[in-house]
Amino acid sequence: MNYRYTFTGCDYENILQNAQFIVPGINKIIAIYKPSVTDDIKAIMRVRPDKSEDIEPLLIIDRLDRITKLRTPQKRFEWMAEHEIGIEKDRSIIEKTEIFDELNKNILLLRFKNEFDGLHDLLLIYLNPNQGNYGLSLSDKAVASAQKSIIEYHMFNAFNSFLIINRKNREIQQRINADTQAIIQENRKLAEKLKLLENSNHENLKNLATKHCADLSVKYKKKYLLSDLAFEKIKGFKGNISHLYTIIKNAIAFAENNSLQTHPDIHYIDDWHINLTNFEVKETEEIVVHSFSDQKYANTIALLDRLENGAKIVLSKKEKLTGINVGGACNRPMKAPGITDALSNHRSKILTLFQKYPDKWEIIRKEFTPIKNLVISSLKNDQLSA
Q: With contact defined as beta carbons under 8 Å apart, do 47 and 138 qualify?
């Protein structure tokens, strides 16, 4: 089975492959064409398209003069007898045609302008001569000249339409391919830029960690150095970089408390001394918006996620869950009054989400006073209205 679009390959190969669907009663069909500016003339043939799928090449190197004569005229179609063509090896002699031989001309020659050399591509259609084959009559009489005029007109337009549609679709496909390649190249460039930014971020983290280590060395009047493995671990830190000083400070304390040396000249900080987990923002389970009505809660969900992640960081530092601390630990810091205003604006939606997702935002529900007050106030109002 052929899975290609008909416009992706050679136009004339596609015509031969589909000839039996375009014209019934073909005994044989030959295509002669120039595929490109640099390619030589080619010829292919299919015999009995209704019974065989084979497309065969024709050797025409010693018939090029005759082919050029056939490609030159501007006439779009003409009927020929087999002995007039002179391109197949067993038909090298072109006989003179008498006017009474017109009925024997059952080969329809169609010419289509070639876009590369200004001459014409040729289709030679060897037709069944009976009228019944074309629905012109129920008899097996030969096709008359008037009937041939109808056949040649419709056949030329059928094959020409095939060529035009194929070429237009190919142009569209080429534009799509060009656009796709442009998008791929753009994505690759963005990926490269992202990689550079990531590497730059890693280097910045390393430099900042080195600075903190040096500052703490001065503060404690000791020499602290980070090992290569420690640097590698710090490069993967995905939290707020403002916490890096505390991370290094905690690592130093851990390293000193576990050191077997009494008074070492240099205190080395290894990767296992460093705890990043408590300072990284953990990914919260995403709430999927299933309907248009749920989309109105998107901003409220984002606010609650932001406060929950900030609260986790505050607790990891063993600090109080105040509005100032939680707001400062958010990925986009918020001031305490800003938190109060946001909770007031989202009050009804927050209460709805708490009912809908009882297992979400556990920390701020139970331990963050502004949220607790909001829930308590709601319960009091429910009791009063009852």
A: no
**What pLDDT score was predicted for residue 22?**
83
Q: Which helix (H) or strand (E) holds 85?
A: helix 82-85
pLDDT (average), residues 346-374: 91
CA distance 215 to 220: 9
Can you read off the two tokens belonging to residue 248? 């290094």
What is the rounded distance in angstroms from the CA atom of residue 382 to the CA atom of residue 367?
Answer: 22
3-state secondary structure of 121: strand
345-353 contacts at long range (C-beta below 8 A, 24 or more positions apart): 346/299, 346/300, 346/303, 347/374, 347/378, 349/296, 349/297, 349/300, 350/300, 350/304, 350/374, 351/375, 351/378, 352/297, 353/297, 353/300, 353/301, 353/304
Q: Work out the angle between the directed axes of helices 228-235 and 145-220 (0-180°, nearest 10).
A: 130
What's residue 102's pLDDT?
63
Alpha-carbon gap, residue 361 to 355, rounded angstroms: 12
**In whole angstroms, what is the distance from residue 121 CA to residue 11 CA?**
11
Measure the CA–CA gap between 138 and 131, rounded to whole angstroms: 7
Q: What is the pLDDT of residue 94?
A: 47
Nearest to 87 by CA among 116, 105, 106, 109: 109
> Which pLDDT score, from 0 to 100, does residue 282 have?
55
The better pLDDT of the pair 119, 259 is held by: 119
What is residue 132's predicted lDDT score, i.e. its pLDDT? Answer: 56
CA pair distance 285, 89, nearest whole angstrom: 76
The chain-wide mean pLDDT, for the chain, equals 84
Return d(Cα 172, Cα 325) in angstroms, integer: 58
Four-residue CA torsion sign, 315, 317, 322, 325: negative
Q: Which of 367, 374, 323, 330 is nearest to 348 (CA)?
A: 374
Give per-residue pLDDT as tens, 286-328: 555 444 455 788 899 999 999 999 998 888 778 899 999 999 9
Q: Which residue in 252, 260, 190, 246 sits closest to 227, CA to CA?
A: 252
- Say if CB 111 and CB 76 are below 8 A apart: yes
